[in-house]
Fold:
Amino acid sequence: MPTESTPARRAPRADVARNRARILEAARMLFAERGNAVQMHEVASAAGVGIGTVYRHFAAREALIEAAAEHRFADIEEFAQSVCLADTHGQGLARYLRHVGEVLERDRGLTSAIEAARGAAGSEPRGEARARLEEVIGRLIERGQAAGALRPDCAVADVYMISGCLSSVIRTRSGDWRRLLDLVVDGLRPR
Amino acid sequence: MPTESTPARRAPRADVARNRARILEAARMLFAERGNAVQMHEVASAAGVGIGTVYRHFAAREALIEAAAEHRFADIEEFAQSVCLADTHGQGLARYLRHVGEVLERDRGLTSAIEAARGAAGSEPRGEARARLEEVIGRLIERGQAAGALRPDCAVADVYMISGCLSSVIRTRSGDWRRLLDLVVDGLRPR
DNA sequence: ACCTGAACACCGTTCAAGT
DNA sequence: ACCTGAACACCGTTCAAGT
Structure:
C-alpha cells in the first residue's frame, strides 16, 4: 500500500525540491550582483534548468524576487526578537531600524530588484511574516515609550514608512542612510 | 537675403516646435493618469504624430519623462525663491519641503514614472536647474541656522535625501508623507 | 530637414511535446 | 507529475522611404 493517504499534500519529490532550491540560489546570487537587470532566462541557465521549470515553481518574475527576499524577513524578525527581549533601555527601536538599514545595504542588488518589481507596493513583508513582525515592532515601541525614549504617538506605521525611506536612500544612493536614521530617530524622541 | 546668419542654431520651424509641444503635452497627461504604464506608441498617437517623431525629439523614454518633469523643478525653484525671500523666521526650509511633498503628490503618476525610469539615480534635478536650486536651498539653511531653528550640521545633501524619501513614500503609498515631514523637521531642530 | 510606420530586438511568459 | 525549449506577446527603438 502507499505510505500515506492523507488529503494533505505530500512532500515534493527530491528532484523537484532540489530544482526549486537551485533556482532560488541562482536568483539570489544574480540579483545580488546585478539587481533588477537579471533576466529570467539567466536564472534558468544559472540554475541548470529550463525556463519552463522556473515558471513552474514561480508564477512570475515578481514571485521569484519575493521568494528570494524571504530570507531577509526571517533575518530581520529574528533580530527584532532578540533586540526586543534583550534591550534594557528604550533603544530597541533605533537598533531595529539600524539593522534594517544594514540588511538592505548588505544586498543592495536585491533591494533594488524588490523595489523595481513591486510597482506601487513598498518593500514590506507580506502575509504572516508581516503579522509576526508587526507584533514585535509594536512591543519595541511600547518599551521605548515606557522608557520615555519615544514619542507617545509613535506607531508601527511610522516604522514601516521609515524602513521604506531607508530602502529608497540605499537603493538610489541618494544620501547617507545612517544620517537619515539619526534625523528620524531624533524626530521620534518625546517633546 | 536670409534674415540671420549667426552660427548659433536658428529657431526651429513652427511645425517642429508644435510637434514637440504636443508630444510633451500628451506625455504629461498620460503620465499623470497612468504613471509608468504608458507606452511610447500611446504618447505618439495621443500627440497625433508618428512614433519616429517622438524619438526625433526625445532620444529615449527616459528623456521624455525627464522633459515632462521639468515643469516641476521650475515650480519648485520659483517657490523656493519666494519662500527664501519672504520668510521672516527660520521656517523657510520646512515650508520648502512641504511644497516639494505637495508637488510630488499632486502628480503622483509622473512621480512614479520618474522613479521607475531612473534605475539608480534619485528624483533630483540635473544640470543647471540643480545648481540654481542648490544655491537657494543653501540660503534657506543658512537663514534657518541663523534663526536658531536648524541644526548647525544641516546640509543641502540632507534636503535632497529627504526629498527622495518624500517621493518614495508618496509613490509607494507606504505612509503619510506629512507625518514623515513632521518627524524629519523635528529631527532637524537644534539640540 | 523632418515625418512616417513597418520592422527589429529584447525579454517575460506560455504550451505542446517529451520523459 | 514534472521538465524542456521553441514560440509567442509586448513594447522600446531603428531606419528606409516619403514629403
User: Anything to note?
Assistant: Residues 13, 15-16, 19, 44, 49-53, 56 of chain B lie near DNA strand C (CB under 10 Å from a C1').
